[in-house]
Structure formats: C-alpha cells, structure tokens
Design brief:
The complex is a heterotetramer, with two copies of chain A (220 residues) and two copies of chain B (227 residues).
Chain A lengths: L2 E3 L2 H4 L8 E4 L9 H10 L4 E4 L10 H6 L3 E6 L8 H8 L4 E4 L2 H13 L1 E6 L13 E4 L2 E6 L4 E12 L4 E2 L8 H7 E12 L18 E4 L3
Parallel strand pairs in A: 1-12, 2-3, 2-9, 3-4, 4-5, 9-11, 11-12
Antiparallel strand pairs in A: 6-8, 7-8, 9-10
Chain B lengths: L8 E3 L7 H10 L6 E4 L18 E4 L3 E7 L17 E9 L2 H9 L5 E4 L3 E3 L4 E2 L15 H7 L3 E4 L11 E2 L14 E3 L3 E5 L5 E7 L3 H7 L4 E2 L4
Parallel strand pairs in B: 1-13, 2-3, 2-6, 6-9, 7-10, 9-11, 13-14
Antiparallel strand pairs in B: 3-4, 4-5, 7-8, 11-12, 12-13
Classes of the chains: A alpha/beta (220), B alpha/beta (227).
Chain lengths: 220, 227, 220, 227
C-alpha cells in the first residue's frame, strides 16, 4: 500500500545507516532534490549510493556527498565539469567509486526488480570494466556476466502520482526512475501533483503503484 | 493478516465447506491493500468475496493491475480479459503493461500474494498444479511457475481429496512439479493448513472432520499447533 | 524506416519458408487476425511460431496451423477448451511443441530485443521444463539459464500507429506485442487507426517506431 | 549510404577540414530515415548538418527518440535534455522511455548508427574513447560502451592527430578500450577511413594531405582501394 506523506522528512524516515540507496536523475533532470535534502537532515550514514552521476555543483546528490554520508558510489559518469564535490572526495580517498556502463547499470537494476539472478551482456567485453568478471561464449559471441543491483531504498522524482502510487513522468526527467522503483525494498517518490485514482490514463501509467511505497508532494 | 491460530479450531458440527465458503474463508485472510493474483479456475472466485473497502488490488498476468469484476452485457470488451480469457472490467487506478513487464512484476517478488489451484502439495510446500503427467496429456503451464516462484506468499485453494478419495497433501508430489517449497497455506473444503517450511503441516481449522480423522487420512506429519 | 502498406498481403510479403514468426495475442485479445490470414494466403511453410497459445477455435493462429504451415510451436499454454486444431496436429505427431513458462517466454523475447545473451531465472527450477538446462547457484538461490528467442518476423496488432511507426495499444490487447516488436528482424503491425506524427502523446507511446517495419490499417 | 569509393579521392588543393566541414561530410553519409545516436561533444554537431527532409531520427540515451535541435530562450525546459545534459527540443513523432528501455534499444542492435569521438581507433576497429588511463584520472564511461557494442554501425568523428602530432589511428590502442572491433568508419579533419575488419584501413577521401603522406605518417596498413 502506498503512503501519502505530509513531508519529505516523513517520506525518508527510517533509512538506516549502511543502506543502499538508488537516487534517480540524469544530471539534474529527475533528481529528487527535496528527498535528498531530507535525507541529509535525516542523517543516515555509510550509504552506498547508486546513481548515473556523482552529483552536480553543490546541491542534490552533491550536497549528500558533501555531508559525508556516502561511503561508496556506483555510477556511470562521475566526472563532469561541475562534479567538484565528488572529485575532491575521490582524490582524497574519502569515497569509493564503482563505474559501470550506463546500460549495464540500468539493466542490473532492472534485473533486481524482475527476479533475474544475472544476465550476459556484450557491453564491456575486453575492457577494464569487465576485469574479474566471468565471460562466456554464446552463439559465437563473447558476453560478460552481470549481477543485479538491489537496494534498500529508491529516491526518485515523478511528475504526477495518484493516491495508489501510479506514476507518470515528464520528458527526459523519466530516465532511471521507473527502473529504480522496481529494484528497491522501499521506493520513495517526490511528485509535483497528486490526483485521485482514475485521473491518470491507465494506458499511460509508467510506474504502476505496486512499486511505490511513499509519496510526497513538493512545490513545483 | 490473521495470526496463525495457536491451536486448531474444529467445526465438527457441520459438513465440509462449499466452494463459495472456501473462497470466502481464503478471502478473509487477504490483507488490506494487498496486491494479489488469483489463478485460473476456482481461485478466480475469491474476488467475489473481497470486501470493496479492503483495497485489494488484483493483478492479471496478461498485463493489468486494478482488474475489476467480470464484465457482462454491453460492458464486455474483447480487448479487456483476464488470465482465464474471460471479459473483465477496469477499476479506477488501473494500469496496463506488456507481458515482460507483467511477469517482471511477478518474478521480481512484488505481488504480496497469489492464489493457485493444485493437484498436489507436499509437506515441504512443493506444488504440482500444471501437468498430470499422463501419457498423451498435452502440457500447458501458462504463468503458474512464474507465480509460484515470484509471489511473496502462495495460497493454494483446492479440495483436500480427489474424487477417488486420495489426499492431495502428500509427502512427495507424484505429479510433475510446478515449483519447489513455494506454498505457504492450503485452503480446502475440510481444513486449512499452514506449511511451516520444516516439513510439518499445521492444521488451522477444520469443517466436518476432526483433527484426529485428518491425521489418520493424511500421510504427512500433521500438527495441531504451530509451537 | 516504417513502411505504410496498402494491404495485409503487402505487409507479410517476403516471409520465407522456415522462418521463425512471433505471433502476438493472448487468446484472441491482440491476435493479428488479418496478418495471419494474409500469411496463409502468402503460403510460407515450415514455420516456427512463437505465441502464448496454440490457437483458438478455427480462426487466426488455429487457421495457420490447420493450413499445415507450422512445423513447431513455442508457447506457454497450448491446451484450451477450443484448441482442437492444435490438439489434433499434436496427437498425430504433425507438429512439434516446446512449452515455456509464460514469463520465461516473454523474458526470452525481451532478451533477444535487448541484446542479452542469456539470463538466470528461478522460474522452472526443479521442474520438467528445466530439464537439460544449466542451473546455477547465485547468492544461495538456484537459477536456470534461459536463452533469447530472436525471430525473423513478428506479426502483432496495435490500436493506433503514427506514420513513423510509434504504437499505442488498448487495454489487455497490449500483452506480448511490445516485447515481440523488439525481438524480430521485421516487425509487421496491423492497426485500427493511422495518424500523423505529433498526434500521439510522446509520453504514452508504448512501442517506439524504431521497432516497427511495416504497418497496415485494417477495419476495426 | 554512399557506396565505398573504389579509389581514394585526394583534395590536395586545400587545407584540412574545419570542424563544421567534418560534421557536414559525416552528415552526408547518414542514410535517409536512419535512427542515429550522436555522442557527446563534437558528434552532437552533426545534427546541425542533417537536411530537415532526411527523416533522420535522433536517439538520446537518456530516454528519447525524435530529439530536435538545441533549445534556446523560453524553449529551455530542465526536464528535456540530451545526453550531454544540454536543453533540447522535441520533434513531432517523438517518444519517451526509461533508461533500461533506452539501453535495451541500443544494446539490442536497433540503432542504425552512432557517431562517437575517440582517443584512438585501431586498425581492427577497436575503440578507445572513455578513459585516458592516466594516474589520477577519474574514470567515467557513460553510455559509450553500450553504444559502441550496440549500434549497427559506428562512425568515429575526431581529428586524425593529437596536438603533439601523434596519429590516433593505431595498430593497437594504448588507451583503455571502450569496445573491440566495433568501428566501421572514421571521419577526420584530413581524411575519411573505412575499417574493413581484416586489419586493413581504406582511405576514402583526403583533404590537405596526399594518400602517400598519410601512409608515411600512420603505422597501419593503409589501402587506397577496397579491392
């Protein structure tokens, strides 16, 4: 059942130290800023964060990193012109980094959500990112075995939710959110609008409410 | 969810449950707001016994959450059917998705509960419900294996004995298996059972039969108490 | 590029003997009846058909089977009250049958469409349907390895297409079609309506046009 | 697609191509109606040289087909960006999808073409474009490996020589690899190349340099003809 929360602080309550947290967004599009700010106030530490990037400028995920709450980050593209918070932590050995190809990152979370124990992909074969991973020939092509990324919590952003937790997104702000929603034990969503069941087109729902545990409306 | 009874309740002053009563007993154990898949056949009838305010959301594996009651008359729409291919309706808050997404939902452990029929269930919770294994029988599995493996809890709804009087709760299934160690509870016409996972079968309630008689007729380790 | 065909016959032209053909539909919902009728007229033989069921009554997929064009069928649920055409062919040894769990069937096609060389699933472990298949322990659980199902052709049905091939479906007639569209070299779609690009909501497109090769409008 | 030239065309009466000219040459080789992903950086500029009537449909890996030109002024929408995180626009017939679907599209071989930058390309088509391998460099791969492996054809757009004058087409890459044997063509400021798959590199056209001089400066087996 989906819980409509009164505040972002309520929505992120109970996140434990040491949790694995999926954080939606591609750059700042779809980044759940208010939930991250609440997680900073909530104070859980020693987190493993999975997100496409490692924070931009000084807000959002970058602020969470700056707060010293993140032990390890799993992402595809940490290095950006405005990733100075991460860069500094990384160079001073204060954060662990695991780089994964972007499609592998998405597919590993999808696997966790879909009950797939592992899958073979051609991406990364023969590269540094496949070192130490099992490879296998299938029908004459070489594949690398990748394992699921399951998480304790997903923090994502959507455009509109109904009170059952069905979600729709807006343009490329959709990005990782629907996949992350499936891969976490508890999925927390910040939305711009909340409507009653029946107000979203059932053909256009992107994330069915079964994947959503907590919703909070934030000012748009 | 109703707590497991500390000791069996025996209703020996009446006969076995009818099919409607069986469905009602099971429906009463479905938690409020649960996401539930009801298998083809008798399990489908459980929907008729869910109170409207229970907020239970029905999944059908052919790509829908928020399935409503059977469609009749002008409401019949060939594009809107359930897993048994009968016309159904759509409730507010429904959503549609394709088959890979629908089965990812099942296989990824997101459904709270599924209700399935069975040929046999073993004391360890092995389920046999897809194939009689008879020579000439055409095998057809549908979504049974996916449901049995994927749902967080699996309830079986079946008569306890075959027409020939053979018990369907057995030490080891003789029919081809659907999935290993997946069944949590069994709802039958004469008793409800809890599978504990350590090869004990706990009787929760009986109708028209005593615990002692049940024990004499089933070749599994039956307990009257979870402790 | 998507080709708008003038007839179902044009849409199925060129399907070769021995092809693997994905046929959409769950029972009759979403069954591409007109495309199947055209395939019967076109006459390709020795086909391997992948579909959830093995035909209902005497039309659609059942008619294709009755025409003797199908060597093998891969499906999850052949046996139904009205599957007499298949039943007779099967019992007389005139058709080969491979039964797969419904979710495995869908996921194997998704894998083909997504470049996945194989995946591990718990479905089927310990059953007849996993016999002869590789199993593997991952994180203390047993999984079975399943391989992709790629096809030469997919025949599917949708509700509305734009001329770029973007598709939307209607209710549970969606079922296997979006997955099949990704798994075939040539995807052929029968639709009830054709509109111009821009008339479908980009947020609600289910099958992007990249997966669609041929469209034909059929009377609804 | 333009047929591979039977013999190299040498434009020695002029200097090397400018960046705009490079993009225009590559754009001219993109087939009508193709589904194309343009990588971050210089490859993005290819879009400016596609004729509007070419029907080329641009994919951006952050979840969109039918991407339009860069957004400016009031059209800037923070929810609508490209893979380089710059604001873009939406064309009629666009569609949005999530990241797993977007990369399934790439990895499943559905894109006709991608255009990528590179540090190095080997004579066998190995690509190195994600990591300098220098001590202290922070690795960041993004979607490069997925694109290189997944697109039906991979075009590289780069200058042929580093600022220090080192050729970027090499026998074996010394930078960390992005993918093996994936590059089909290389578009540079001084020449375009076809990778044949048998370790030969065919020169298709040159600007401001002769085939003979190219051959003297590159340490790979250069051919002037595909036969």
């Amino acid at each position: 059942m989906t819980l409509l929360c009164a505040s972002a602080d309520e929505a992120v309550s109970g996140i434990a130290d040491g949790s694995t947290v999926l954080v939606g967004g591609f750059g700042t599009a779809g980044m759940p800023f208010e939930l991250i700010d609440a997680l900073i106030r909530q104070g859980a530490r020693n987190l493993t964060v999975v997100s496409n990037n490692a924070g931009n400028a000084d807000t959002g995920l970058a602020a969470l990193l700056a707060a010293g709450q993140v032990r390890k980050i799993v992402c595809s593209f940490p290095r950006q012109t405005d990733s100075w918070v991460f860069d500094e932590l990384y160079r001073s050995g204060k954060i662990e980094l695991e780089v994964a190809p972007q499609g592998t990152l998405a597919e590993r979370m999808r696997a966790a959500g879909a009950g797939i124990g592992g899958f073979y992909t051609r991406t990364g074969v023969g590269t540094l990112l496949a070192e130490g991973k099992e490879t296998r020939e299938i029908e004459g092509r070489t594949y690398v075995l990748e394992l699921p990324i399951a998480a304790d919590v997903a923090l994502i952003s959507a455009h509109t939710a109904d009170t059952l937790g069905n979600l729709v997104y807006r343009k490329t702000a959709r990005n990782f959110a629907p996949v992350m929603a499936t891969a976490a034990t508890t999925t927390v969503v910040q939305v711009r609008h909340v409507v009653e069941p029946g107000e979203l087109d059932p053909e256009a729902v992107v994330t069915p409410g079964i994947y959503v545990d907590r919703i909070v409306r934030v000012p748009s | 969810m109703r707590p497991v009874s500390a000791s069996v309740v025996e209703h020996t002053d009446r006969g076995p449950l009818g099919r409607d009563e069986m469905a009602r007993v099971l429906a009463g154990d479905i938690p409020r707001g649960a996401y539930v898949n009801l298998g083809i056949g008798q399990p489908t009838t459980v929907a008729d016994h869910l109170p409207p305010d229970a907020g239970v959301i029905l999944h059908t594996e052919n790509g829908m959450l928020g399935m409503g009651p059977a469609a009749t008359g002008d409401a019949i729409d060939p594009d809107l059917i359930n897993a048994g291919k009968s016309p159904v309706t759509e409730l507010p808050g429904a959503s549609y998705f394709h088959h890979a997404d629908s089965f990812a939902m099942m296989r990824g452990g997101h459904l709270d509960l599924c209700v399935l029929g069975a040929y046999q269930v073993s004391a360890s919770g092995d389920l046999a419900n897809w194939h009689t294994g008879e020579p000439g029988a055409i095998p057809a599995v549908g979504g049974a294996m996916d449901l049995a493996v994927g749902a967080k809890r699996v309830f079986v709804l079946m008569s306890l004995f075959t027409r020939a009087g053979e018990p369907k709760i057995v030490r080891e299934c003789t029919y081809p298996l659907t999935a290993l160690r997946c069944v949590d509870r069994i709802y039958t016409d004469v008793a409800t059972f809890e599978i504990t996972g350590d090869d004990r079968v706990v009787v929760r309630e009986t109708w028209g039969i005593s615990f002692a008689e049940l024990r004499s007729r089933l070749d599994v380790r039956l307990e009257r108490d979870v402790h």
